[in-house]
Amino acid sequence: MGELDEAFVQGLEHRAKLSATQIERIPVIDLSALANPGGNIDNLVSEIGDACKNWGFFEVINHGVPQETRQKLESAAKKFFALPLEEKRKVRREVKTAPVGYYESEFTKNVRDWKEVFDYAVHDPMRTPLLPDPDDQQISEWYNRWPQYPPEFREACEEYSRELEKLSYKLMELIALSLGLPADRFNSFFEEQISFVRLNYYPPCPAPDLALGVGRHKDSGGLTILCDDEVVGLQVKRKSDGEWVTVKGSRESYIINIGEIIQVWCNDAYESVDHRVMLNTEKERFSFPFFFDPGHSTVVQPFEEIISEQNPPKYRPYNWGKFFTTRRLSNFMKLNVDNIQIGDFKVRD
Ligand SMILES: O=C(O)CCC(=O)C(=O)O
Ligand SMILES: [Fe+2]
For residue 221, which of 84, 95, 171, 293 is within the disulfide window of CB 3.0 to 4.6 Å? Predict the structure, then answer.
């Protein structure tokens, strides 16, 4: 990506401390009990509940996603990002006409990220509002844009998203149970899901003390399942003390984090946690988040079964599609306003 210009430089308080490379363990949850239908999953449900409450981040093992599916995606993604820029730009995202595809100039909170990405929808066409304006009713249908090279790319991506979608439903069921809700309580919101997979490529960076691969943020959707590689990078703002700690999965695990929609649905019983990506001067890094996001027409608000006189709703209802479109447009370019966030819908005392 060449030189590091000013657009990449993080404010002083947001830069990574490169000396803090010790890896912090997040809860590891073994999902093997799910492979045994009718078996007892009470322990699993309570472990998930504790991890969601205390960390908002956890690792899963024995998750049922074939290792080969992951390897195929890793190999295809590496081949794609190694292509010349002109080739990758043939499937470049465009602000008005194509929100999925390749992009090398994303902003998080108005600072440019040191990364390249390729996004694809889990189900296409993906239906989202065209414009953020609350009164505009136009809905766009977005189709995935597949590169010609490597030839196996599309199939590897589609197989990966099919498997990860299955895992997402399993995790959402466990989270619902952990909140005392019926296992299928979340499912209907995902019938017209706008889930997507992002392939992240972080090239080595000449100034990892100044820039980040992804600036601090919370994932705005339902749930994120992250596949990361050998190179460390992910940092999480630890809930217990607000410190930024470095987190790492393994080849056998996926890292899960709660998105802002679950936080609103459960009225802050579980919180979505800030995270960011630290860079280094020598090694490239890849990561593949799967964002499990409900349909655009979902009105997000605390569930009736959860709120009560003692636990009044902490958020006003908002339209997820409009939220998504507003955030999407803000990630394309530097703006003079802050990004939309669930805090904007918080009920003030
Ligand atoms: O690369 C990572 O480890 C995390 C990426 C991430 O947080 C994101 O793309 O939303
Ligand atoms: Fe994220």
Answer: 293
